[in-house]
Amino acid sequence: MGFGGKDKGFGGGKGKVKGKDSKGKGKGKDGKGKGKGKDGKGKGKGKGASQVVIEPHRHEGVFVSKGKDDSLVTRNLVPGESVYGEKRLVAESADKEDKIEYRVWNPFRSKLGAAIVGGIGQMPIKPGSKVLYLGGASGTTVSHVSDMVGPEGVVYAVEFSHRPGRDLTNMAKRRPNIVPIVEDARQPQRYRMLVGMVDVIFADVAQPDQARIVTLNASYFLRNNGFVLISIKASCVDSTAAPEAVFASEVDKLRKDGCKPKEQLTLEPYHRDHALVLAVYRGSKKTK
Ligand SMILES: C[S@@+](CC[C@H](N)C(=O)[O-])C[C@H]1O[C@@H](n2cnc3c(N)ncnc32)[C@H](O)[C@@H]1O
Asked: InterPro entries recorded for this chain (predicted)?
């Protein structure tokens, strides 16, 4: 839809690894996802541990666990630990020398996960990327982005509410590639000393002025030809207009502020009346 991106979501590659279900115990601070739901979250007690086959996804840094139902997984940067009660899977490396742990990524709980499962054509977040994440909440998706970028990458995660900000900060203690920032994303000057130049800005702040928040942050931190990924919840911008009209007007705002839209896709059926837009940043002519 929109500017392209029609590929299927679960594009497995070569290099399968086999292994077993892990315990699936997690810290699960938000109390969600324990042993219920169709997506298998919180299950995986390890009883009669089943074989798992993991294949690389066509987007680098993401993997697919093959089975009755394929699931999206990321390679756990901190083996042995879940972040929000998600199931973990252990597989052998190709040379059978090492065990590799993966975490199941539930698209119902993550806009980025939903975009990947939904078939986004290009994914600028990859191993080694520097990402500014606006609207980190308690870190559910931030933790998967941390897995995706790996030890060579960085995730600067901004969240202005104190309670989720505390969870985010605690999670970052175990994940050295996350820099938690408890600040208002409308005030990037307050955290400019903490954030370096980034390759990608991912935004999920669910605010009516989100496009402005993103381009303002881009003018501070995003390199030219860097990428913007923005999750748009139509009702947060204008609850009276048709979602498609809201998405189009948000894309227009991005365009006016130096972004060239590349792709737009719906996040249905995982997130109702949400779209994700991918754009390239050409630099803003406006002053900060
Ligand atoms: C939809 S939730 C984000 C969920 C998260 N991205 C995930 O997938 O786990 C939106 C978050 O944005 C935060 N937020 C809203 N406005 C913000 C702002 N101006 N600055 C920083 N965070 C903001 C909210 O507190 C909330 O935690």
From this structure: Fibrillarin (IPR000692), Fibrillarin_CS (IPR020813), SAM-dependent_MTases_sf (IPR029063)
Q: Which residues does ligand 1 sit against, CB inside 6 Å?
A: 110-111, 135, 137, 140-141, 158-161, 164, 184-186, 204-207
Closest-CA residue, ligand 1 atom 13, reads 135
Distance of CA 108 to the CA centre of its chain: 12
pLDDT tens readout for residues 82-117:
999 999 999 987 787 888 999 999 999 999 999 999
pTM: 0.86
Distance CA 50, CA 67 (A): 10
Instruction: Tell me if 140 sits within 8 A of 108, measured CB to CB.
Output: no
Contact criterion met (CB below 8 Å) for 236 and 207: yes
HSE-CB at 192 with a 13 A cutoff on CA atoms is 13
CATH topology of domain 106-281: Rossmann fold (3.40.50)
Q: Are 84 and 168 in contact (CB under 8 A)?
A: no
Question: Residues in the chain, how many?
Answer: 288
Q: Where are the domains of the chain?
A: 106-281
Indicate the top mutation candidate among 41, 160, 171, 233 to test ligand 1's pocket, ranked by most ligand atoms within 8 A of CB.
160
Torsions phi, psi for 238 (to 5 deg): -155, 105
- CA-CA distance, 194 to 185, in Å (whole number)? 13
- Produce one character per residue of 264-277: b if its CB has 16 or more CB atoms within 10 Å, e if not: bbbbeebbebbbbb
